[in-house]
Amino acid sequence: MQKMRVRNHQVVLNRSVGGDAGIAFFLIIMGVFMFLPMYYVIIQSLKPLDELWMFPPRFYVQHPTGKNFGDLFTLLSDSWVPFSRYIFNTVFITAMGTFGNLLFSSLAAYAISKIPFPGRKGCFWIIQKSLMFTSTVTAIANFLTLSTLGLMDNLFALIIPAWGSSMGLYLMKQFMDSSISDDVLESARLDGCSEFRTFWVIAMPMVKPAWLTLIIYSFQGLWNTGSSQYIFSEQLKTLNYAISQITAGGIARAGASAAATVIMMIVPILVFVISQSNIIETMASSGMKD
Amino acid sequence: MDDRKDLNEQEAVEVKEDLQVNSVVDENQEVTENNTEAVNDSEAEKPSKPKKKKAVARKDMTWGQWTWHEMKRNKIAYLMIAPFMFVFILFTVFPVVLSLVLSFTNFNMLEMNWDMFIGIGNYTRLFFEDDIFLLACKNTLVFAMITGPVSYILSFLVAWFINELSPRLRAIVTLVFYAPSISGSVYLIWATLFSDDAYGWVNGVLLDLGLIDSAILWFHDENYAMTLCIVVALWMSLGTAFLSFIAGLQTINKSLFEAAAVDGIKNRWQELWFITLPMMKPQLMFGAVMAITGSFGFGGVVTALCGFPSVNYSCHTIMHCLEDYGSQRWEVGYASAIAFVLFMIMIGANTLVNKMLSKVGQ
Question: Are A104 and B83 within 8 A, CB to CB?
Answer without folding.
Answer: yes
